Amino acid sequence: MPHLRQTKNSYQMIVNGKPFMMLAGELHNSSLSSAAYMSTVWPTMKHMNINTLLGSVTWEMIEPVEGQFDFSELDKVILGAREHGLHLVLLWFGSFKNALSTYAPAWVKRDVNRFPRVHVLDDDRKLKTIELVSPFNSRAWEADARAFGTLMKHLKQFDGEHSTVLMVQVENETGLLGDSRDRSRAADVAFNAPVPSDLLAHLKSQERLHPMFEKRWPRFQATKAENTSWEAVFGKGVAAEEMFMADAFARYVGHVAAAGRKAYNIPMYANVWLNFDDPSVLDLEGIPLGEGTPTVAGGGAKAGVYPSGGPVPHALDIWNYHAVDDTKLNFIAPDLYLHDYDWVCKQYTYRNNPLFIPEQKADAFGVRRTWLAYGTYGCMGCSPFGIDTVELDPTELAFWRRSNGLLHCMRREILTVQADRPEDMFGFFFDELKDGKPPGQWRKTFGDMEVIVDRSFVFGRPGPGYGIVIHQGEGKFLLIGSGFQTTFRSTKPESTFTGILSSEEKMVDEDGKLTTLRTMNGDETRSGAFFMMPTEEPDYGGFPIRVTIPARTYIAEVTAYSLEENAEHY
Predict the structure, then answer these.
(1) Which of 45, 85, 88, 373 has the fewest CB atoms within 10 Å of its CB?
(2) For the segment 10-19, what is each residue's pLDDT rounded down to a tens digit?
(3) Start-end ranges of CATH 2.60.220.20 in the chain?
């Protein structure tokens, strides 16, 4: 069965006994409901060098009548993926999808006696009912868990010998919109009770909690045992109400996940609609900003604007306690659209949490950032959303194919380093250069050699780029990518010179074996000053001599060296 294997500081997806790099894309919400529709999608995905598709399976579709299940369309879809050599990650839209219950069956929606709704305060401070099943109700999660467990049992029977389905997402962007907490009678009773003693004891037993938790509650460990109401522990108002909802939703999702894992033990995760405390963590480059745009585009700065109770960074410790263990979820995954990519990766590799990005921007802006995720953070996969309706011009399509194709052909090398020596690799990207903004630079030191990554030199306008650098020992580095150049600097105090000793453009076969295509020197290394990883069409800017050689394979091996001289050498 597909499973996660622990690495030096994270986990990798194992498929048929081997590490697997997911080059993924997420479909629109209704796409996987139709095998006929998907028959038009599979070839396009293969052409884009995608090997894994994320798509939803909805509760209302598989159990339209309580106790009567229909998996016929899902089976056809799985057979279609299998026929085209593609894998699937299924998204369980059960009780919760984007902080609503719109994908629950009609028999759940109509029966408010068995499945009570969440009540919130509207703008006039009046209670109103919303399309969201209350998490303060065991009958709701029991029904959801039965359906999810039945789905997973069927998957094991239908696909267990094939591993077409690699992983399952449990619910989708769970939480509450429109208010910071459920204000139904059952929720009021729970909110007025003490913080559950098991949760409080767990949090207080931890030597360190998530940095965003500690930033909000720096004196949490000093909480007095005799006063443990939600507001006494977390503060009055929204802060306490959000943590209260996180406790409820995490318990609910944990129950559902446990039923699925018991039936078929393949990896499972929950995704999160991100928030922001500080607008500086947003990356809104190129986004037209009108009034309120940063709040909406970035997820929201207040619980209720973003889903209150979801597994945002400052609530991760509560979610990890209730929903993440060997019998429930394997990890929490961020949907990453307009946040700073590096910042989010750091938040969700907390305590070696496996990194998987189930939703992100489906454009060159997003694709370039996947190189940072794979190279620096050991990401298992990155998945642009709406992949089946992305309309790319020929240049963009070629870029996407090249990026995925390059990751695919170098997957064995990258996965090996991810697992055994992640400190020897880092990823990076460069966006389109904007007038008046600095060009940017990435640096990392390996032993006594610092690697400095800049945009690739051109006589014309510098362009975007992406890549991974892997340290192979003894000054040797593997360079993968396009549109950048590397300079090397010895960190030895006695060093008087650092240069490039040798450099070769490499090609790779299907077994991952590298061989030399061209030996590069002289002009291509600016006489040993730096090594360029150019694009297919470098911008000569009208310069009459074609000095920069266009890239062929986007793979190179460079050996840097330094000299340590003393007085007798002069």
Answers:
(1) 85
(2) 999 999 999 9
(3) 424-569
